[in-house]
Each structure stands twice: as C-alpha cells, then as structure tokens.
Write a structure and sequence with these properties.
Layout: H1 8-11, H2 13-17, H3 19-34, E1 37-38, H4 46-50, E2 58-62, H5 87-100, H6 111-114, E3 118-122, E4 127-128, H7 140-152, E5 159-163, H8 165-168, E6 180-184, H9 201-211
Parallel strand pairs: 2-3, 2-5, 5-6
Antiparallel strand pairs: 1-4
C-alpha cells in the first residue's frame, strides 16, 4: 500500500483501496519492470509527501514528469540540484524575476516552495523515458482529480495556478467560491510568450494569501 506519511493517507485511503487504483498499480508495475520510468518509484508521491493537505495554500498543476535522465523527482516543474533547469522552469524563473525582482536561483529544485504549502502536482505522475505523455490515459487523471476534489472541499482558501491546457482542464473541479483560480498559458517556450510572461501570478498569489489572512510564499529559492 501507498504510505505518504501525513493526512493524505487517511484522505486517500478509499481511493488507494479502489479497483481503479489497483488497475493503475498493475499497469505501473509492468511499466517499471519493462521500461525506464520517471520518477523513481519511491518519488512518485513526493508532491503529497512534501505538502500535506492541511498545509496546502497554493496549488501549481503541471502536465507529466520530465522524461530525461535524472530530472523528475515527483514535484511538477522541479529538478534536483545539479540538474540543468529545463526551458519551462527557466521561463518560470524569468517571470518570477519580472514579477517580484527575484533573481533566478543557481538550481532548479522547488522543494522550498513545497515545504511552505505549495502543492506541486502533475496531472500524470509517471512517464516513460523520452516519451512525454506516455502514461496519459492510464488512470492518473482520475487520481489527481480526486486530490483536487479534496482540496476544493477545504475550508481554508487556496490559490490554484493553472498553467497550460492540461492544468486548465482541472479548473472545472474547483467550484468552492472561497478559492481562486489564476490561469495562464504553459511556461513552455512554445507558449510562454502567449500570456505566461506578464501573468504576475506570484505576486497575485501572495496578495490574495495576505488578503485572506495567510502567510505569503517566500518564492526566493536561494535563501
């Protein structure tokens, strides 16, 4: 059984016991046995491990994990220290600099955000090496829908940052009026100039957190 180590275990217990999840688990067991899959199987649920349900106040939704060696580690857009930040992450740092004046860090690991209550959730949590979207349509979408449904029911306001089509498709799940949804194109080089640059989501998220009586996020990763 999955062991996350915080309140997500109880909240997702019924889902993890469902036949729907067991089918996904069988698929993953075969994939990890026969192909190179990212992230490491022990890192799949890192987004939930680093950011408990109770602590979540910002949600960033990505697509699926990076598919190159050593990149993915279970947090959307994040790479481990020592790994060159991919283009989408560099564009995120560029927007952060233009929005809040924060200089791009010398690494691409976003765990400091996660530990402050930023849930870094991909819509699909695994991928074959060099094959983006290869695990799309095999059950992860229903799982991440369930995570967002639970967050939608939370009675503490959350900021949802929805970047790109895959993330924006989740917007319909967020119906609780105490939450706010900020949408923009994906930070990929293919779409960042269509409205991701200039969206100012980092300052808008912090302004809204402060308006609702919550601590803002320290987006500076070099502290």
């Amino acid at each position: 059984m999955v062991h996350i180590g915080n309140d997500w275990d109880d909240l997702l217990a019924d889902y993890f016991a469902s036949e729907q999840y067991q089918a996904l688990r069988r698929f993953l067991a075969e994939e990890y046995r026969t192909h190179t899959i990212y992230p490491n199987m022990y890192d799949i649920f890192n987004a939930l491990k680093y950011t408990s349900f109770a602590d979540t106040k910002v949600v960033i939704i990505g697509q699926d994990p990076y598919h190159g060696p050593g990149q993915a580690h279970g947090l959307c857009f994040s790479v481990k220290r020592g790994i060159e930040p991919p283009p989408s992450l560099k564009n995120i740092f560029q927007e952060l600099h233009e929005d809040l004046g924060i200089q791009p860090p010398n690494h691409g690991e976003l765990t400091a955000w996660a530990r402050q209550g930023v849930l870094l959730l991909n819509t699909v949590l695994t991928v074959r090496e060099h094959m983006p979207n290869s695990h799309k349509g095999h059950g992860w979408e229903a799982f991440t829908d369930r995570v967002i449904e639970l967050l939608n029911g939370k009675q503490t306001p959350i900021v949802f940052l929805l970047w790109g089509a895959n993330a924006r498709n989740k917007a319909k799940i967020v119906t609780n009026p105490i939450h706010i949804k900020l949408e923009a194109p994906h930070p990929s080089p293919l779409s960042a100039y269509n409205g991701f640059f200039g969206c100012r989501h980092f300052s808008k998220a912090n302004a809204w957190l402060q308006k609702t009586g919550q601590e803002p996020i320290d987006w500076n990763l070099d502290r």
